[in-house]
Specification:
heterodimer; A: 166 residues; seven-stranded antiparallel sheet; four-stranded antiparallel sheet; 17% helix; elongated; B: 166 residues; alpha+beta; six-stranded mixed sheet; 3 helices
Chain lengths: 166, 166
């Protein structure tokens, strides 16, 4: 096929049934893949700084917990409102554990925990609380924010949708 | 003797019955969503709204609520039981704080646990600019119960779903 003809065919393809079926299959595959497997995310807010920055793009890997459960230190996306608004937080405690903050340090079951991902100074104080059954305790990495302004706490594991791809 | 003709008629009759039931059910769901759409219109506010329009809107808001309405939010001072006039008063005070306001509901999940009762879980997005110039952009999941009173669906319970418990 001459080059000119090939270029024209590429940008203005003939609307044959075969072509239309191909377009439909590609559209359906994209819809299923980006809806059920790897969903695009736009991160809004600073609660996970410096790990994740405000305004950056990522993907939600929805099958991460298909065969396993979230572990401590996993960064997870929680369904916040409907299917489009999520919270991105880090799991710091599992069910039946006691969580506490003393002068910015995290304590789980009375033991101080290492948190290398926390880069900014923190002076949080939070009395001990027990994580309920089928729940995890999640917090953002940006502890520079006053504790009252930071959205964190225990959430049902049923609300965990997946993990960021990177 | 059962012929193909009889089978086709039977299948068609069942199909029509299923479609009719589905359509009636959908109709009731549409009726349940109507007060939400009305509330969107009456809560929303553009700059330069005159006193007459404001009074009409706030009065109309009260007409969407049952005589015994309960509100549950994270803010204890706002949570409680209200009569429709009190809801209008609350709405008026809230709207006065903003020069522009927009309320949108989405992701409706409607169920009918019993006759005359609808349970709706949905997403509410409230955006606006206060009279002090501050921007607000809040999205929350709400759990609402509506009762069918005199053929009208009225709000009887609204709860802001708490995803994270500190």
């Amino acid at each position: 096929m001459p080059l000119r003809s090939a270029i024209r065919q590429f940008f203005f393809p003939s609307l044959t049934p075969k072509f239309l079926i191909r377009v439909l299959l590609v559209a359906l595959s994209a819809y299923l893949f980006f809806g059920q497997v790897l969903t695009p995310l736009r991160i809004k807010g600073r609660s996970m700084e410096p790990t994740y920055h405000d305004g950056t793009i990522n993907f939600l890997w929805k099958w991460r917990f298909a065969l396993s459960k979230p572990k401590r230190y996993d960064v997870v996306a929680l369904r916040f409102a409907g299917n489009r608004v999520m919270l991105l937080k880090r799991v710091i405690a599992m069910e039946a554990e006691t969580v506490e903050f003393r002068d910015g340090k995290l304590y789980v079951d009375g033991k101080e925990m290492e948190e290398p991902y926390v880069r900014f100074p923190c002076n949080w104080n939070l009395p001990p609380r027990l994580v309920e059954k089928d729940c995890v305790y999640v917090v953002g990495d940006n502890r520079e924010m006053p504790i009252e302004d930071h959205h964190f706490g225990q959430a049902s594991m049923r609300r965990i949708l997946g993990v960021p791809l990177w | 003797m059962v012929t193909i003709k009889h089978l086709i008629i039977a299948v068609l009759a069942v199909g029509i019955a299923v479609w009719a039931a589905f359509y009636v059910f959908q109709s009731e769901e549409r009726k349940v969503k109507k007060p939400f759409h009305l509330l969107e219109g009456w809560v929303s506010k553009e700059g330069g709204e005159n006193a007459f329009v404001m009074a009409h809107k706030t009065q109309s808001i009260g007409s969407l609520f049952a005589q015994e309405f309960e509100l549950r939010t994270e803010i204890d001072s706002v949570s409680g039981s209200y009569a429709p006039e009190e809801v209008s008063s609350l709405a008026a005070r809230g709207r006065l704080m903003f020069s522009s306001l927009s309320l949108k509901f989405s992701d409706f999940d409607v169920k009918f646990p019993e006759e005359g009762t609808a349970k709706v879980i949905l997403v509410a997005a409230l955006k606006g600019k206060s009279t002090a110039g501050e921007y607000m952009d809040e999205t929350h999941e709400l759990e609402c119960i509506l009762k069918k009173i005199d053929k009208k669906w009225l709000f009887s319970y609204v709860e802001m779903v708490q995803v994270l418990k500190k």
